[in-house]
Amino acid sequence: MSGAWVYNTARISDSLAMVIPVWFSSDVPRGSILQLLCDSLMGWEAFVRPENLVLVVDGEQPHVEWALERLRGMLRGDAWRIEMLKTNLGKGGAVAHGIECALAGSDVQCVVIRDADNDHLLADLPPMVTVWQGVCEALRTCDVVVVGARHNLTAPLGWLRAQWETFLNHLIMQVVSYCRHRQGDAPCW
Questions:
Q1: Which residues partner with 17 through β-bridges?
Q2: Which helix H or strand E contains 19, and what residues bound it?
Q3: Burial annotation 59-90 (CB, 10 A radius, 16+ → b, else e)
């Protein structure tokens, strides 16, 4: 089954971009930041072309800039981009900026957003891309959002954060449902 995922991922690698918003607290050691970034990016070249990899540094962070200087020499390819935002826009602002950069003047149809904290493995990506491809084919449009999820939030996050994530997931689904209902696209559930 994983062979099918690899085939499908390779088929769209030219149209896939990866955006990684980067923000670390100033109390995180530079070496730890470098290690987290390296681990988060391990294997990226199997999924996207170098010019479709965009790291967005959210506000001035000298400790992150130090890690990125070293990271450039460690990763394959030199076409990948680092966007340095002067002010902290928050995660949503950094993601939006990264998506705009990824889509500007390219053939990108699918943008994957990954955190820089190595919380998810790249192995999570092929099944999501396969779902994206299937939905695009079924709907005859690629204006589709596929959102990953954990089967068990408590194990990796702890009880309190798992409850918070569950609440946010439910809230997001309700907002999307309400917006679709207001636009007449779907019944409100």
A1: 111
A2: strand 16-22
A3: bebebbeebbeebeeebeeeebebbebeeebe
Spatial distance between the Cα atoms of 8 and 25, rounded to a whole number of angstroms: 37
DSSP 8-class letter at 119: -
Please give the pLDDT value at position 10.
Answer: 52
Stretches where the chain sits below pLDDT 50 are 1-9, 11, 188-189
Which of the 8 DSSP states describes residue 51? Answer: G
What is the number of helices (H) and of strands (E) in the chain?
Answer: 7, 4
Closest CA to 95 of 145, 154, 33: 145
- Rounded Cα distance, 61 and 66, in Å: 9
The model's pTM is 0.73
Residues in the chain: 189
Which pLDDT value is given to residue 185?
A: 66
CB distance 53 to 80 below 8 Å:
yes
First to last CA, the chain: 34
Ranges assigned E (strand) in 23-163: 53-57, 81-84, 110-113
